[in-house]
């Protein structure tokens, strides 16, 4: 197995596991129940880590295909009726990882301990933006309060993913370079 494939698999595994562990630490076993709102740690952890691995190796077409496939799998397996809600948060997760992998990850190579916090911030910004857009789409009197309730969840998902990517770098599969 070549080093690029090992590194790609490492990003996927460590990113997913770290995201799920972060959710488990803060919300317990609710992370593993498909109907739980905290299942986002599993679904966006997998989507984020796979997207990051593919974006990081400039496999954009593959990333779009796999992301859409994962979105459909998670959406239909949850038996949810809120397609637009899932779609906006999914787009936020994928765009967060895209921005991080293309414009931040390599440029801050020397600041390894800051990168997870930056990804967490980007995730929370996209989660708030998604909530604000959904507030406009599904306008009601109580929807105003909900705009910022998902921000900590987005922050923790991004933090878990970022820590997983840093752990993957620590393992350093590419020992020759």
What does this 3D model show about the protein?
The chain is an all-alpha fold. The chain is built from 6 helices and no strands. The chain has one domain (3-171). The two termini are 16 Å apart.
Summarize the structure.
The chain is mainly alpha-helical.
Q: Looking at the structure, what is the overall shape? A: globular
Weakly predicted, low-confidence segments: none
**Structural class designation:** mainly alpha
Query: How many structural domains?
Result: 1
Keywords:
mainly alpha, 6 helices, 72% helix, globular
Topology (SSEs and partners):
Elements: H1 3-27, H2 40-56, H3 60-78, H4 83-104, H5 115-137, H6 151-171
Helix pairs in contact: 1-2, 1-6, 2-3, 2-4, 2-6, 4-5, 5-6
